[in-house]
Amino acid sequence: MPGSIPFYQKHHRHYDRGYRSKETESKISQYQSSSSRYVAGSSSTSATSRSRGLRVSSHSGLEESRLSPVPKRAKPTYLAVDKENQIIGYVVPIFRGSQEFATGFSDTEQARVRDTAAYMARRDLFTTGLEMERSEQFSRKEAMRESAERISLNKRIHEHEEHFKRMNEDSLMHAPEFVIKPRSHTVWEKQCVRLHCTVSGWPDPRVIWYKNNVAIDPLANPGKYKLESRYSVHSLEINRCDFDDTAQYRVSAMNSKGELSAFASVVVKRFKGEVDESLPEPRHGPVSEYGINFQTHIVDKFGVSFGREGETMSLGCTVIIYPALHRYQPEVQWYRDDVLLSPSKWYHMHWSGDRATLTLTHLNKEDEGLYTLRVTTKSGYETYSAYVFVRDADAEVEGAPGAPLDVRCLDANKDYIIVTWKQPAVDGGNSILGYFVDRCEVGTTHWIQCNDTPVKFARFPVTGLVEGRSYIFRVRAVNKSGMSRPSRVSEPVAAMDPADRARMRGTSAPWTGQIIVTEEEPAEGIVPGRPLELQVTEATKNYVVLSWKPPGEKGLEGVMYYVEKCVAGTDSWQRVNTEIPVKSPRFALFDLAEGKSYSFRVRCCNSAGVGEPSDPTEATTVGDKLDIPSAPGKVVPTRNTDTSVVVSWEASRDVKELIGYYIEGSIVGSNVWEPCNNKPVNGTRFICHGLMTGEKYVFRVRAVNAAGLSQFSAESEPVEVKAAIASPAPPYGITILECVRDSMVLAWKQPTFIGGADITGYFVDYREVIDGVPGKWHEANIKAVSERAYRVSDLKENRKYQFQVRAANMAGVGIPSLPSDTFLCEEWTIAVPGPPHDLQIREVRSDSLMLLWKPPVYQGRDPVNGFYIDIKEADAPEEAWRGVNNKATEKAYMKIKNLMEGETYVFRVRAQNKAGVGKTSDVTEPVPALTKPGTKEIVVDVDDDGVVSLNFECCDLTPDSKFVWSKNYEEITDTSHLSIETKGNKSKAVFSALGEDDIGIYSCIVTHTDGASAGYDLSAEELKKLLEISHNHKFPIIPLKSELAVELMEKGRVRFWLQAEKISANGKVDYVFNDNVLSQGEKYKMNFDKNTGVIEMIMESLTPADEGTFTFQLQDGKATNQSSLVLIGDVFKELQKESEFQKKEFLRKQGPHFIEYLSYEVTPECCVILKCKVGNIKKETSALWYKDGREIKADEHLGFTEGVLKLEIAQISKKDSGVYEVVLKDDRGKDTSKLNLTDQGFKDLMNEVFSFIANSSTPLKITSTDQGIRLYTFVSYYNDLLQVTWHYKDSAIAFSDRIKSGVVGEQLWLQITEPTEKDMGKYAIEFNDGKGGLRRTVELCGQAFDDAFAEFQRLKAAAVAERNRARVAGGLPDVVTIQEGKALNLTCNISGDPVPEVTWLKNDREITSDNHCILKFESGKFASFHITDVNTSDSGKYSILVKNKYGTESGDFTVSVFIPEEAGGKKK
């Protein structure tokens, strides 16, 4: 329907039906608001007419400009100069302009222009008070006329907005210009340098400083650089310059009108002889360490990776470089599809010193490709590559196509920019209708759709751009379901001519140390010549692109171009760009009639005039010149790995501008096609990854160019996804097993890679080595050998030979191994055996593995009679080899146990004969002791018919895998006794008739896996169990959880019962007693719970007639079982007695009764508590305690909750022996409980008390006294009845006067008086508790005895000294007061052995006996002090000092002599 809007415009979030006129509407609204303020504030008609005159004159200027090209405008200057033309300052101009000419301004710039115009209007209008008064009296009629004029003017602005924008650049805006450029400097090292410049331009330019074309970041080098910008003066200060600051510096100024750069060089000089020793010497080449050969290994590699748009992905590898030099780092580079990647917002690269990482921050389909890590050293380089696939993000609308990719900008100039892209691989199930191109100005986030209708051609010229501004672009695809997600944005591109772009960016040659600036003087007044080489570079049904070369003359000023067209067959030329001349030598023409043919020509023009036209082009028909590619040819898939397939195809024929191919794959029968690549590939071969192993796939391919996608090719043949078959890798580890005069027996190891198919055989070559020079190779065997050992014959004795081996499979013969070591062909004569060979490791688990080998070919002098196995950790030295078995094993296999989980081991085997142990075999490959996830063991199964089978399951099965069963590690070939059945990933070996011949070790190994294997040891004991289980399955019985049993119930009832493990609802039971079937009745109660399988028969009581055999007979289908219980003799009598007792017990428990009868308990404090537990009591129930018939305690009122009665005996003794009784009674009856604590009962109680005492004893300790050595221990409580025995050397001690024992409080001691060395030995104290007793021992010998004896001697000597030391026994007063003239007589007793020496002191000075003071010491015991006539001079402090060899002692007294008169005076 006419006027209807396409759905992709209705529903798309970016659609705005008026987006092309948004700027125009915005300018008109701003002009209206500005005019309103202007009219409201105008004072007179003359002011209004001045405003109109300004606008009309501008319009007139526009009309005149159509007659000739716009001349180049002179550059404005804002410098203030004096008479001598010296710069003295700046002039700030006041700008005037119309609001509608500000098209393309930012919001801030528009506001500034608008505010400036309003200010100027207010300044002119409100100059005087009279004008303000007139503005208030403005008539309504004049206001209406102004409004009409304003509407008319707005209409003209709306019609000619694009014309004004192109032909009248606003005088406010101009590109940056360097008023003062930075100048070059040469400075000495460690000086500071300052570069400064002055820049003009509107809007204010943004200034950036560069060093050797790298932007300077002051934050990255704090203190090094300082940037300042003030009043259009910009400076860069470099602090403390060093030699590295010598460089070319560039300052770039940029605004919306363009970009301009200026250059300056800085040279830093160093004084001669000044060299910083800390600086490293310059490197010549990659590294200065000559003679070092670096070995590079890339490990821990990233594999083929899959991501989705919008995700983050990291690729990393560990790089090992040997030798490792810390100061040397390799060059690490990343490539995608052989294109070097550089760090950006899309790619983050990191090198940690040993690991290289590439992070794709936001995946897009452009990131898909082959990624290569290249590590370069001076010795060469190593690379590793893997493919990265990027899938489409989920569509925002179901069924919408994938996003386009690889958006680029071509042919950018001021008039248009051509945007190209690549079509997506996914169309969402519906054909893509076309594409929408969006643009966004750099620095903003507003996206504008560039085309109203979708374009199918993957190339589109975008027009309507603002010259000098930078843009980014994106593309969206659309089908009938909806719009795709937008593509990744393009790189920014400026809308300006290439020549202007190069000039403004100031691109420079590499730094050479000097800058040469040249400028060509324009030539004026010359009309330009003809443009050259005009041609149609691109033609579609939507547009045509022309390109040409400027005229050959140089120095032409302001050259522009007019493009003219002519319909083919006519001579009527029509100018295409009548209003706007073209500045760039390219032009895009739109609105041409599709299907018509046109010729084109171009004229040059400048201010001097319009030149002659160029030669016209050939007639060009408007339409798509580029055709959609033809479908690719035959598609051939081939196997690659178990998850990938190699797809190749024939290229599309006669295709132009081919972009690449898209490949799709589908599982056979699913009819669901999935893209294998989301980025076109250029070749005709591609590896499709991420396929399902074992599935069959078909593939198809289609080509793509800018015109679109081709039809799909024919589907390929189906191919199964599994690893491709290739020839095997070379064998290795060639050794000699035997050597005779003319032959040698070789052995080798299987290749690490067998090529995906079983090895069918090996071929051996040999060559003779003469004087170290090898000869030609000769074939040793024409027919392949299947074993990994072969005898090479027809050799010459005492000659040297080398050997090589090649492996073969169904894909062919592989490359030969490396030549072996040189071996001498001479006969072995040693007596011991040669080395075993062909060591194999199976059934690897975390703690064990199975080692197999083959016996040596060379037996030695005697046959081999056993083998020894050696083991060591893989990284351990040779000295770490140790034997696994101490006794030689005769078998050629052994299970190695007790391995440490996670440890890696290696093994070797030695053979022995009677002469001794022979050579060691080759060492196995290292094997870690780990149970791999998903590992299964062999499971034994017995079916319902009793057939026994061994079952093995493998989870890692490959299509070529086979199950190989062995007995005693020899493959089972005879299937008559043991048949093999394999289905899927499970295999089982079924025994036809299990017997003793089948005893052995059974194993199963799965080929083409990572060692999947398991073993099962069928021993004689296991065989017996299996035969029993097999018999039970053949002849089924009803399994019983429990056999027939009998138990007593309350009231003395008897219950016979059993439980069947499983029985159906049809099961039956017969109850038989002495061959008589019993039936339900008063005496017998039968129950059969078929859910639980419990069968029971209950009898109320047993009588003598019930003695006999009870049998329960079960039947469930053909399965039967029975269980019998014989109750005769003492067994029956005991059961009958117990039944009667239970019956009585039931009656007893109807009243108050004892739940637990009277018993005793000994506490850790050795208190005895008699206790019992009672039940069924009430308030009226009483409890009476008796001892030997006498009541000792009564509990008349017991609570219902109280259930335990206690009687505590604090310190038990013999008097507490007796018979204790408790009686419970109330109106319902009574119950009695007795406890006999006499004789043996009391003895048992005391033994328990003694046991507590013994356990509380401390360890036996040693101490010394002045009499001897004492051994002692402490107990927490001592009882007089406790019996202890002291032992010396395990014999009881016979006590005497010299050796005594005793008890002090809680201490038990043994005293040894006057000990000697004979008393040394082991002492023990034994506590007798009637059971085993408890001993505490101590060793009185060695150092312990020496220390104790020495302490005894010391104490003894101290005691002797204490007894015999000199003493003053007494007799001396403290103070003696005596009258002058009197006689003083004092006597004291002296003791000590030997007799002490006596010394008298007065006031601490020795005195001697004289006539005045008589001192005597008589009989060695009595010392006397006598003064016959006391006078005042005798007053003082006196001391007697006695001394012998054991010590000294003194006695002190004070003598005070007074005169009688003085005494009387004092009394008064």
Can you describe this structure in just a few lines?
Keywords: Cytoplasm, Immunoglobulin domain, Muscle protein, Phosphoprotein, Repeat, Thick filament. One of its GO terms (molecular function) is structural molecule activity. By secondary structure, the chain is mainly β.
- Tally the helices: what do you get? 13
Strand content: 35-45%
* Beginning-to-end CA distance, first to last residue: 156 Å
The share of residues in helices is 10-25%
Describe this structure as you would to a colleague.
- The chain has 1468 residues and is mostly beta strands.
- The strands form 25 sheets. Strands 47, 48, 49, 51, 52 and 53 form a six-stranded antiparallel beta sheet that branches. It has a five-stranded mixed beta sheet with strand order 4-11-10-6-7.
- Helix 2 (22-40) runs antiparallel to helix 6 (140-159).
- Residues 176-267, 309-389, 928-1019, 1152-1238, 1378-1456 form the Ig-like domain.
List its traits:
1468 residues, mainly beta, six-stranded antiparallel beta sheet, five-stranded mixed beta sheet, disordered C terminus, FN3_dom, thick filament, cytoplasm
